[in-house]
Amino acid sequence: MIEDKNQQRTQLSDLGEFGLIDHLTKNFEIKHKSTVKGIGDDAAVLGFKNKNIVITTDLLVEGVHFDLSYMPLKHLGYKSVIVNLSDVYAMNAEATQITVSIAVSNRFPLEALEDLYVGIETAAKIYNIDVVGGDTTSSTTGLLISVTAIGEVKSNNEVYRDGAKPNDLLVVTGDLGAAYMGLQVLEREKEVYKVNPNSQPDLSPYSYIIERQLKPEARKDIIKLLKDLEVKPSSMIDISDGLSSEIIHLCKQSKVGCDVYEEKIPLDPQVISTCEEFNIDSTTVALNGGEDYELLFTMSQDDYSKIKANPNLTVIGYMKVAQVGIHLVTRADTKIPIKAQGWKNFNV
Amino acid sequence: MIEDKNQQRTQLSDLGEFGLIDHLTKNFEIKHKSTVKGIGDDAAVLGFKNKNIVITTDLLVEGVHFDLSYMPLKHLGYKSVIVNLSDVYAMNAEATQITVSIAVSNRFPLEALEDLYVGIETAAKIYNIDVVGGDTTSSTTGLLISVTAIGEVKSNNEVYRDGAKPNDLLVVTGDLGAAYMGLQVLEREKEVYKVNPNSQPDLSPYSYIIERQLKPEARKDIIKLLKDLEVKPSSMIDISDGLSSEIIHLCKQSKVGCDVYEEKIPLDPQVISTCEEFNIDSTTVALNGGEDYELLFTMSQDDYSKIKANPNLTVIGYMKVAQVGIHLVTRADTKIPIKAQGWKNFNV
């Protein structure tokens, strides 16, 4: 029936990921009192007495989310865990367990999967999580990895996307745009390799940005830091799709506006130099690059003194009332509306 | 690196699913005290005070687990939920939440995904579960569905695969082999359709077996029934890969043997007649067909009086000490060892 040419057809690319999930699940009802939070945040929240469980899942598809011509399988295993843990931390929770399912074609030998699982095991060790389940199956083409991560948080300590208030500070961890620029370098080297398989590129000037692409880390340390500093964010999200779309998520769900200062956006020197080399605007990269797996959160200005000396945290703007909108304040002191770049995977 | 021709290559088909999961995860350590049970049962078990959480995940791949030329998307959505709920019930737990992730190529219009989600929503309503999360992404080919199901069970009420004791009764719910024979009929009709697209087959003689293939149900009712009857199984598993491989799982994990009586295996009349039509042995189909989503459990003989009148439950054999092995006692009263048919998906 899928091939019926007469049926009404709406292209998925017209909706994008967020429109699609909203559209498909808008009629779904919540029936269990243990369901504290369903679809619409970094993770779902289930309530059990004084402890809440968060649960989140991600699907990584070969040819869409990763390219095995430059992604070692160990790193892929590691990264597939990290992207899920990042969602758990974005709820202000401690990650405790994961399940890992893979679909794999016969072109992969056992040794390839062993490499993948070494990466998974390494991430599990470093982040102190248990691998508690999974499923392996065959695929007709390529490799697919589905990870579900589970975390724990004391009841009422979880942080959603919808708690930001006007005048709250907008804070980002680490620096942005590096994973995207690492990908640009890897894509360029792939093209060079196609022309001359004997070329030995010197990638050392790009070591940081390539590592950010191939072996990202999740900000478990920030959850501990915020606890130690006694700062509870009013809203939080992890930066997977890019700063601009995450800012829009926080603003829309919290029903607030925002001013973000271009000059405050943290960039690593390697990102700046590589952007110059590729002739790309570094602010555009920081706003839209994605895969940073940093945390973006809002917090009360009253707590500013607790965070101001911390090198991991950068205040990049202020939340406003919804009516003023969401803007980037440029270095030239002009205001540009921040728009979602949308989710381009359906155009691949 | 995956294309390096010099690396050691072990074919995945040499291991099969169970060997593969065991092999890949054998070094994984459990670190959290909330992890009551990790890999190796129908679901993982996480402990929280007097309630345990079970969690299980399954990946369904187009061309491996389903064929859209005869699987309506509504049914596929429904079935993708059912196969996971079945694992939750096999732990003696109540299913409460699911997450659903899909990877889909641009060949699918929105309306196709709406159909898929209608099936998911229908299952969620009927089985009283909340859809709490998910992820949509693109795929380069075909459709892929990953479902994670979460359930709750009172601490110590969960039932594992490893609790069967010699002399326990081996009990199966419903009847077996129907989903497999339904698939044979659908495959045959697909071939007929290829030759003559205008043929209008009369499938009414196969209505039950086709429904078992396209729209299976999970035995939520049995969990309630066992509770009402005050029967706690000593071990339990759901029948997804086929009766013989599930019996082997229970026996190996419980370190027991088993006699299964061919004449006791419950078969629907439509299975028997269709097996005759296709010239296939119905016992072979019941043992190896799979996708029944019935429950297979063991229980103390002391409780036999509680279940003997129940039409949903059939005693098909007895557990023995491990040394005597695992056998089928045929209608001719000969004993044949039951062997795993293995998991053939890697040979697709």
UniProtKB/TrEMBL annotation, chains A, B:
Entry binding sites for substrate: 65, 291, 343
Gene3D superfamilies: PurM-like C-terminal domain, PurM-like, N-terminal domain
InterPro entries, alphabetized: PurM-like_C_sf, PurM-like_N, PurM-like_N_sf, ThiL-like
Binding site for Mg(2+) 1: 57-58, 135
Catalytic activity, EC: 2.7.4.16
Catalyses which reaction(s): thiamine phosphate + ATP = thiamine diphosphate + ADP
Catalytic EC class: transferase
Record flagged with keyword Nucleus: no
Spans traversing the lipid bilayer: none
Residues bound to Mg(2+) 2: 58, 87
Binding site for Mg(2+) 5: 241
Superkingdom to which the source organism belongs: Bacteria
Binding site for Mg(2+) 3: 42, 87, 238
Domain PurM-like N-terminal: 40-153
Keywords assigned by UniProt, alphabetized: ATP-binding, Kinase, Magnesium, Metal-binding, Nucleotide-binding, Thiamine biosynthesis, Transferase
Residues holding ATP: 117, 134-135, 161, 240
Described function: Catalyzes the ATP-dependent phosphorylation of thiamine-monophosphate (TMP) to form thiamine-pyrophosphate (TPP), the active form of vitamin B1.
Note: Reaction mechanism of ThiL seems to utilize a direct, inline transfer of the gamma-phosphate of ATP to TMP rather than a phosphorylated enzyme intermediate.
Family, similarity comment: Belongs to the thiamine-monophosphate kinase family.
UniProt-recorded name of the protein: Thiamine-monophosphate kinase
Organism name: Flavivirga aquimarina
Lineage per the UniProt record: Bacteria, Pseudomonadati, Bacteroidota, Flavobacteriia, Flavobacteriales
